[in-house]
């Protein structure tokens, strides 16, 4: 595969999809704004999954136990306040990106321009797959790193104003490098975990003549409904629900082990990736041989 | 002369509808072929087959490749403009240049830049903000700067005003065409391409009903303006069309020879549109 061509194709995805950077920047902006309001009005220091530690401005009386708790709380702050909302934002961005990626070009007929270039359908579709699994997650993770840093600086300022030692309280407990590493690793692993969903969206995107969104959402719902009516069971819904529910333990394992790669040892991950690969192959086939686009 | 396209028994059906009913044709290097036919005649289907945008039955060879399997390789030698509206609206002009330079090894960016300098198109404008004429100029600047051997144009001037249309064909001839390159063009505006074509192909109901060079066409078809007293005599030569003009009859003959024609009245070359109308009616009758 020609690297210049592939680089250009990926760049083209980046040009078209401003939401890759816009969405995380907006989310990070909102988080930082509310953090500023929270820090300087309510004096609420750290929010750890809803549990608030209030210091009442007295930083000198912290016990050793408080400090170790602070370490956990800092992780909660960095992951919970920044990474979690950014990851959810990314999944929304990817949903609409993937669903539109082979559909919009047929609606506005720009596919005829793309197809007038010496680029194979395989290369084109793979550039979109690469953008979804790598480009968009890396942009989101970079925004996460920068915004976490801004968050730490804000907390530092707040501690200084209150006469505490920012180094001991904030930076020594921030596990900065581990957090930066996990921003990237976790976001990419979560995206890979969502691969079967993305694969389905690519298939719909390549197949749908109209109403891609409705097909993408209502076909799975229809399958659940039919299964429920005929077999009085809900295996399909359960399958999807359990797969999505695995994201939380996946994140927790990253806390415990310092990395999220335990997920790669799970069969479920590889089944998901295989389903995705089959769907992508189907999407390539459809894009190559259908001709209702003219 | 070498053939760049050879089609034998080219067929394409959409369900029960036969878009192409086993057509044979060749296109030679260095020609400008006009593919003319009414809506639904199979023009676009034929072009799609040539460009590898659809499946088909029969044999089709374009630059030694089968377009069905090798579209992306074929596009090194062939480029096409399908319609004025196909450049993506979100793209900036500079991005369009970057994109084509990135994916097309035969693209001459400097040439494209110099085309664009002659226009009012700004480098940082988005395609969606350009006028229709400007989008066509941009597309043309991109495509004419690619050193391809065959250019396929499907209704290239659709929706353009008359100023741009003239310019479009002028640039096409002066900047792109030479003896090593070929152009296939389909259009409803037959008058516009009349003086441009070297070959003429009429297609109707999935079949090719005329395929010859313009030289042969002007040899074969003669339009004669006959005074009404000679009309009966003229009809013996089986005119393929007749119409009335200023009280005289105008007959269109297929292959009767210059001498006989001149004995009947004033002769001249028929316009492609008159010839087209005559050929289309002929098949029906």
In short:
With 294 residues, chain A is mainly α. Helices cover 77% and strands 3% of the residues of chain A.
Q: Give the C-alpha Rg of chain A.
A: 22 Å
> Low-confidence segments of chain A, ≥5 residues, pLDDT <50?
46-52
- β-sheet strand percentage of chain B: 25-35%
What is the count of DSSP helices of chain B, taking H or I runs of 4+ residues? Answer: 11
User: How far do the termini of chain B sit from each other?
Assistant: 36 Å
Describe the structure.
- The complex is a heterodimer of chains A (294) and B (285).
- Chain A has helices at residues 3-16, 19-42, 64-101, 104-107, 111-114, 121-161, 166-171, 176-193, 195-207, 212-231, 235-245, 247-257, 267-289, and strands at 44-48, 51-54.
- By secondary structure, chain A is mainly alpha-helical.
- In chain A, strands 1-2 form a two-stranded antiparallel sheet.
- In chain A, strand 1 (44-48) and strand 2 form a beta hairpin.
- In chain A, helix 9 packs parallel to helix 13.
- The radius of gyration of chain A is 22 Å and the shape is globular.
- Mean pLDDT of chain A is 84; it is low at 46-52.
- Chain B is an alpha/beta fold and 285 residues long.
- Chain B is 35% helix and 29% strand.
- Chain B is built from eleven helices and 13 strands.
- Chain B has helices at 43-50, 67-74, 93-103, 109-117, 132-144, 162-176, 190-193, 214-220, 231-235, 258-264, 272-284, and strands at residues 3-14, 17-28, 32-36, 57-62, 78-81, 150-154, 182-186, 199-204, 207-213, 221-226, 241-245, 248-254, 266-268.
- In chain B, a hairpin with a 2-residue loop joins strand 1 and strand 2.
- The longest helix of chain B is centred in the middle third of the chain and has 15 residues, at 162-176.
- Chain B is globular, with a radius of gyration of 21 Å.
- Classes of the chains: A mainly alpha (294), B alpha/beta (285).
- The interface between A and B is medium-sized, with 29 and 36 residues.
């Amino acid at each position: 595969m020609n690297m210049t061509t592939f680089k250009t194709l990926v760049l083209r995805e980046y040009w078209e999809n401003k939401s890759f950077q816009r969405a995380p920047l907006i989310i990070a902006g909102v988080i930082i704004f509310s953090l500023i309001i929270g820090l300087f009005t309510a004096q609420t220091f750290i929010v750890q999954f809803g549990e608030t530690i209030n210091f009442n401005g007295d930083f000198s009386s912290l016990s050793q136990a408080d400090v170790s708790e602070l370490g956990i709380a800092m992780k909660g702050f960095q992951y919970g306040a920044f990474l979690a909302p950014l990851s959810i934002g990314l999944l929304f961005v990817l949903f609409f990106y993937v669903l539109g990626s082979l559909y919009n070009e047929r609606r506005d007929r720009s596919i005829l321009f793309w197809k007038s270039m010496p680029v194979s359908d395989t290369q084109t579709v793979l550039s979109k797959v690469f953008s979804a699994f790598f480009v968009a997650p890396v942009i989101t993770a970079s925004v996460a790193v920068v915004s976490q840093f801004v968050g730490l600086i804000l907390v530092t300022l707040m501690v200084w104003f209150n006469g505490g030692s920012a180094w001991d309280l904030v930076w020594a407990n921030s596990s900065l490098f581990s957090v930066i590493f996990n921003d990237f690793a976790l976001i990419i692993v979560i995206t890979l975990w969502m691969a079967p969903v993305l694969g389905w969206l690519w298939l719909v995107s390549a197949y749908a003549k109209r109403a891609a969104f409705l097909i993408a959402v209502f076909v799975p719902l229809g399958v659940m409904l039919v299964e429920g009516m005929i077999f009085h069971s809900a295996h399909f819904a359960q399958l999807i629900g359990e797969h999505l529910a695995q994201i939380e333990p996946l994140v927790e394992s990253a806390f415990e082990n310092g990395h999220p790669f335990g997920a790669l040892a799970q069969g479920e991950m590889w089944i998901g990736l295989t389903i995705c690969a089959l769907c992508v192959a189907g999407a390539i086939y459809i894009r190559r041989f259908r001709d209702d686009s003219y | 002369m070498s053939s760049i396209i050879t089609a034998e028994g080219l067929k394409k059906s959409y369900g029960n509808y036969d878009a192409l009913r086993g057509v044979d044709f060749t296109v030679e290097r260095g020609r400008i072929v006009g593919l003319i036919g009414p809506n639904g005649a199979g023009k676009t289907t034929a072009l799609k087959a040539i460009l590898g945008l659809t499946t088909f039955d029969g044999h089709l060879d374009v630059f030694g490749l089968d377009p069905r399997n090798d579209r992306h390789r074929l596009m090194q030698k062939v480029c096409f403009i399908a319609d004025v509206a196909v450049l993506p609206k979100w793209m900036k002009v500079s991005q369009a240049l970057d994109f084509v330079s990135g994916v097309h090894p035969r693209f001459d960016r400097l040439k494209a830049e110099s085309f664009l300098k002659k226009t009012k198109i700004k480098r940082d404008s988005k395609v969606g903000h350009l006028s229709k004429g400007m989008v066509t100029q941009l597309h043309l600047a991109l495509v004419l700067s690619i050193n391809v051997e065959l250019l396929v144009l499907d209704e290239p001037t659709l929706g353009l005003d008359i100023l741009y249309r003239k310019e479009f064909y002028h640039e096409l001839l002066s900047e792109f065409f030479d003896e090593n390159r070929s152009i296939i063009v389909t259009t409803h505006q037959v008058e516009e391409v009349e003086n441009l074509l070297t070959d003429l192909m009429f297609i109707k109901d999935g079949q090719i009903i005329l395929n010859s060079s313009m030289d042969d066409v002007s040899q074969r078809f003669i339009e004669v303006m006959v005074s009404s007293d000679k009309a009966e005599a003229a009809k013996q030569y089986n005119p393929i069309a007749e119409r009335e003009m200023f009280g005289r009859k105008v007959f269109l003959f297929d292959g009767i020879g210059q001498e006989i024609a001149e004995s009947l009245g004033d002769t001249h070359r028929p316009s492609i549109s008159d010839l087209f109308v005559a050929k289309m009616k002929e098949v029906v009758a």
